[in-house]
Amino acid sequence: MENKSSSRADFLSRTRKMILSGVRILPSLLLFFLTVIPAGFAQDFGLGDDGSWSISASNQLEYSTDQKTHQDFFHNWTDLDLTYHTYRVNLRYEAHQPDDFGRTWQGLSFRNIQFSNELFELTAGTYYVLFGRGLILRSYENRDLRYDNNIDGVKGNLEFEGFRLTMLSGTATGRYERLEDPLHAADAQMAFTDWLSLGGSYLRADVTDFGLVRMFGGNATFSFPNADLYAEYAKKDNPTGEYIPGDGSGIYASANLYTPGIGLTLEYKDYDKLDFIDKDVTFNNPPALAREHTYTLLNRHAYVLEMMDERGYQAEVTTTPADNLSVLVNGSYTTNRRDDLAFSEIYGETEYDLAEKAVIKGAFSRQEYKTEPGAPVRLAPVVDLIYYLSDATSLNFILEHLYTEKYDAKLTYYDQILSLSLSQSPIASLTLTYERTTEWKTQEEWSGNRNWLMGTLDLALGDSHNLSLGLGSRRKGKVCSGGVCVDKPALDGWEIKLLSRF
Hints:
This protein is mostly beta strands. The chain contains 2 helices and 32 strands.
């Protein structure tokens, strides 16, 4: 009797959870269908036949369930854009139950109305903005990182014969709430000739419990037949105080040199107490000067930007010595102001195209990360092979190997990822991903997995929908972009992703 009662209680508990999960996602599903109806309505009834109306929408849905933790994750973004003559309305409704930070919420996260003509554009509501290369201000969204620091206020753009002026005022959104401290900023650019452009930026914000912070700077762009040069300087004025760091500054410079068959990029950075943070919002995001990797193991250990104290450079050479051969070499080096090494990497890759039969790609990276515990040195060879079975069918084999040594090679281990994909372009692809690690040998207690296996089926459902179904286990790890990283939770279950465009 006790076993029957227990089974019945477990069944009722699971049923109750399923019902509550369904109730929570109803608002998102409702808005999803509301985006489909206006798009179809516009097409069926001819709204926009004269070019006055334009309606577009998209929906991105992600749902996963973990069998070990018995936790479900639901994410949904619904975007709707409506244009009428010189007016445009942008709306985004988000639902996260919970989000990657453990918070359950849903609501209208982005909304604005824009008016524009040949000279002027005015935005009221939420918006994104970039000044220069981000030394002073960069507001942007990255859904892979679950990052969004949009600004809510008013922004105006004026463009006239080579002159561009942006002025704005508003409050930024944080990870958990919108800030109460407003910021005011302006950015101007002037093209004096075909080869010279100068600009300047200014920002100020009165931060609660901190004081008035001001940032200002200038930039210059030079364009020549075989070279592009760019330089930017930023200065940060902090309020005076016993526990407040001194004023900061930043320098970024780049040079792109190119001739037929070869290109060279050189970059330099020098950031000293440049970070501008209010609670959990970072207003600026300058270039990190470290290569962004597409391969999983290398991306997990990408360099994390540190604007308080760093300087360094990056150089990259790309060349095509033959029509079917390309070579890339990249080197980056970052220190603090005492010239102590923080991060360095040497990366190279080569790609060879066997005349529509196969593409062979090899890569190798050596990373040295002095700011991590144990000052790890990582060696990472990669083999990437695509074999064409027919014009539309291909096999893709990827082997990633990451060898790590810490504490002067007293502790060593390696990680491996093996991926095999069968693709029928542009309809479907099936991918099996296997990962293993020997890191467990370096720890006395290891409670997690040692092997992970994930199967993913990607389908193109017509021209408007892309569906991805995943089943298996995936390791917890970092996802990085632009010097910003977040930890993605592990998965031992299944997931579904659906991207729709209307």
